[in-house]
Amino acid sequence: MAALSLSTSALGLAHGVAPPRGSPSISMMAKATGKDTLIALAEEQQIPMGFWDPLKLADKDFWSEGNDATVGWLRHAEIKHGRVAMAAFVGFCVQSNGIHFPWDIKGGILGDAATALSYGDLSAIPAPVDQWAAVPTAGKLQILGTIAVLEFVGETMEPHYMRGGKPGFYPSLKDAAGGGKGNIPHPVPLDLYDPFGFFEGDSEEKKARGRNVEINNGRAAMLGIFGLICASKGLIVPGLDSLGIAQATAEPMSYFGPNDAGLPFVENMLKFDIASFGQPQ
């Protein structure tokens, strides 16, 4: 995610988290294609430095799919990573302050009290990165499995964001469930986006403004969560070093750790040493 956030944020550097002034021009974005889409987006967001693409990614042709598809992929990747980063930033702050659910993760009333593990037990671990490392393997697999299902639904939507679809759009889970028209075999009562329908009556102008605000906040969150992770690993991060962020011992970029060594390939993964990669044996 680090490389991706650096490359996609370079396509249009956000000016803090402030929304653009005035109403964005929907027609300008609708008429633009390829690189022009990114230039129009930067103009709508009224970024002081304008369109900025030092890596020239907006001129690339990934996988020989064409420039329009490449820009669609880059835009969708930035929006998705921004959303994940916003959730991660809030989660890091919540976990660092000992806020947790009151229930048991395993054991407890209906299980073996000797092996019980509660959210409070995890919250007692100071560093959020180490809290994730302590989550039971079954819990990690449930979380990653849910993410995989959501990814499958999003990637099978039509039109795809690389084929003329809207970058950042996520299809309705209710429409994707059952009825012979979807790819989820059972009913889903709520959508991932706007599950209670609060924004159904918003005008197109308001929705466009909200999308721009989301992109700006996502860019800021990507920088923010990386700053928190770096500070938790003992690196110098201006503005965060004085906050007393708990130091983590686990690897923040690894889904699995020593507690998950029973899973296929994990034991070999844990033995991998990046420092010796490519060195003669």
UniProtKB/TrEMBL annotation:
Residues the entry annotates as binding chlorophyll b: 158
GO molecular function: chlorophyll binding
GO process terms (BP): photosynthesis, light harvesting
Amino acids binding chlorophyll a 3: 217
One Pfam family per UniProt: Chloroa_b-bind
Subcellular location: Plastid, Chloroplast
Keywords, ordered alphabetically: Chlorophyll, Chloroplast, Chromophore, Photosynthesis, Plastid
Primary location group: plastid
Xref: Gene3D superfamilies: Chlorophyll a/b binding protein domain (1.10.3460.10)
GO cellular component, one term: membrane
Residues that, per the record, bind chlorophyll a 1: 52, 78, 81, 83, 214, 219
Protein name: Light harvesting protein
Organism in which the protein naturally occurs: Emiliania huxleyi (strain CCMP1516)
